Predict the structure.
Amino acid sequence: MTWHVLGAGSLGTLWAVRLARASLPVRLILRDQARLNAYQQAGGLTLIEQGQHCLHAIEAETLNASTPIQRLLLTCKAYDAAAVMGALKPRLAANAEVILLQNGLGSQQQVAEQLAPLRCIYASSTEGAFRQSDFTVVFAGAGHTWLGDPHQPAAPMWLEQLSRAGIPQQWTAEILSRLWRKLAINCAINPLTVLHDCRNGELLNYPAEVSNLCAELVELLQANDQASAAVDLHAEVLRVINATAANYSSMQQDVSRQQRTEISYLLGYACAAATRQQLHLPQLQDLQLRLTAHLRARGLPSD
C-alpha cells in the first residue's frame, strides 16, 4: 500500500526518504502545480545526514490529483491541517488511515471529527530535523515517535514497515498524555526563545522564568487529568534545553523567517484549557499577552 506524504518539510521529508529507502511505495502530495514544478526542478528530496547529501527522486503529485489515498501521513503545520484535509477528503478510500504529525494540540481533534468515521492516528515525535532550503532537510538528531489512537487501542499492522524503514516508534494507549507533555515542554521553551530572541540553551540565563512557567504548566496538566504528563516536568524541560542548547526552536525560526507561528495550538491551547478549568495562571497568561504583542509588532498573525 502506498504511503502518501503531505508536507515536504522536516519530518515529512525524513519519513518519506526513509520509507523509500526501505523500498516501500511513497508519493509526495504538493500544494499545486507550481510547487510540483519546483520539486521536479530540484530533482527530488535531499536529506543531509552526518554531512552527507543524498538526493531521492520520490514520486510526487498535486493536492487535486485523482489518485486514491489509503494511507496518509499529514505533516503540514497545525493551522493548515483542517483545510488541507477538507481538500483531500474526496480522495480518501473508504478504509483510509490518516497519521497526524502536528505540533501542539487541537488540530488533531479537528481533523478526526472532520474525517469520522475514518481512522486518525495521532503521532508525537522527538526527532530533530530542520529544513535547510526548499526540499533539502538536515537530520539533526535521533529521537523517537509515539503513535496512538484515542478511540481504537489496537495497533495497525503497518508499524512493522516503520521499523523496517528505520523509524524508531512505539504504539501507546497514552498518546494524549504524550501530546500534553510535549505541549507543556514547548510552552515552557518556544515562546521564551522568541521573546528573548535566543537559542534554546540561552534560556538557562532565565531560570526563574522557566521554573515559574513549569510550575503553572504542572497545575494545568493536573487539572486536565494529565497527572502522568506533569511528573518531573521542570527537570524534563531543563534536559531538553541542555540537549538542544545550540538549536533555535521551531517557533523562533518561524518568527525569524517572518512566517506564521503555531501559537494557537501551543500557548493558545494551553491558555484556553486553563480558562475552561477556571485556573488562575498569571505567568502563562502574561506570556501569551507578551508573545501576541511581539508577533503583532512584527506584522505576523497572532493566532
Notes: The chain has two domains: 3-173, 177-297. The domain at 177-297 is CATH 1.10.1040.10 (N-(1-d-carboxylethyl)-l-norvaline Dehydrogenase; domain 2). The CA atoms of residues 102 and 214 lie 22 Å apart. Residues 175-195 form the longest helix (21 residues).
